[in-house]
Amino acid sequence: MWRTTVNLRMRWMGAVACLAACLGLTSAATGDDLENFDHWSTGFPLNGAHARTACEDCHRGGLFEGTPRDCAICHGGSGLFARSKKTANHVPSSNRCDDCHTRVSWRNARFDHMGVAEPCIACHSGVWASGKNARHLPTSNRCEDCHMAITWRNARFDHVGISSGCFTCHNRLQAPGKNSRHLPTSDRCEDCHNTVNFRAAVFDHVGIQSGCISCHNNVLVAGKHPGHIPAPDTCELCHNTSSWK
Question: Which residue of 78, 82, 182, 217 has the lowest C-beta tally within 10 Å?
């Protein structure tokens, strides 16, 4: 801590002496007053990355008084004080850098979503900020229909109005779909399932007259129990599709 303070003071004195010479000031201006100069007294303490910045980077042209304090004047534009600024892929924003960034580093910025009225996709496009990945469900760009501003996870999808095409999403890649123990069926999930949950599915046996054992084999669904009379696997010879009884 002490060594850092000394190094900063030496750098400050050197820069002040150089600038004083450029302005034609007397050598007295670099004496005790400059040595004991407290940057905190200006209302702009040198902390974070500013503590590692050379004095002349901010005090351009030998000017001390009137040095700008607004981040955007130094970190944007193309004027005298132009320094590192927003990159081409920066999120669309105002020039209030300190709303998200700290003086320590540009990284680890924190964006406050409170009051944001613009559509999420305006930033979350995968260019300016993280957006839909390759495994995302096929959807529109209205992120806010399912996601909230706190996290992408725990999204809630509203199935209202969806009556077909379940397999478009429920294909075990983008969303849960048929597991390895599922009945051999087509991919028309909606024939048996509803949009509330996969459980409590109802299978319509209309039109099925044979092949019961392909499902009713005690692996996929209930089949012959241990007390069943000796019989072949042609369930349909005795049973109907309404019930076993």
Answer: 78
- Reference 213, options 192, 189, 186, 231; nearest CA is 231
Asked whether residue 137 is domain-assigned, the answer is no
Contact 142, 119 (CB under 8 A): yes
pLDDT 10s digits, 145-201 = 888 887 888 888 888 888 888 998 888 888 888 888 888 888 889 889 988 888 888
Percent of the chain with pLDDT over 90: 9
Alpha carbon 38 to chain centroid, angstroms: 42
Q: Where are the alpha helices (DSSP H) in 48-127?
A: 55-58, 71-74
**126 within a domain of the structure (yes/no):** no
- Residues 60 and 73 reside in one and the same domain: no
**Side chain identity, residue 236:** E
Of 18-22, 96-100, 126-130, least confident by mean pLDDT is 18-22
Any domain includes 106: yes
Q: How far is CA 4 from CA 1, 9, 16, 52, 172, in A?
A: 5, 9, 18, 10, 57
65-94 in b/e burial notation, b at 16+ Cβ within 10 A? eeeeeebbbbbbeeeebeeeeeeeeeeeee
Q: Which residue has the tokens 């700290």?
A: 102
Could you give the CA distance from residue 171 to residue 169 in angstroms, rounded to a whole number? 6
Q: What is the model's pTM? A: 0.47
Question: Residue 181 belongs to what domain range?
Answer: 159-204
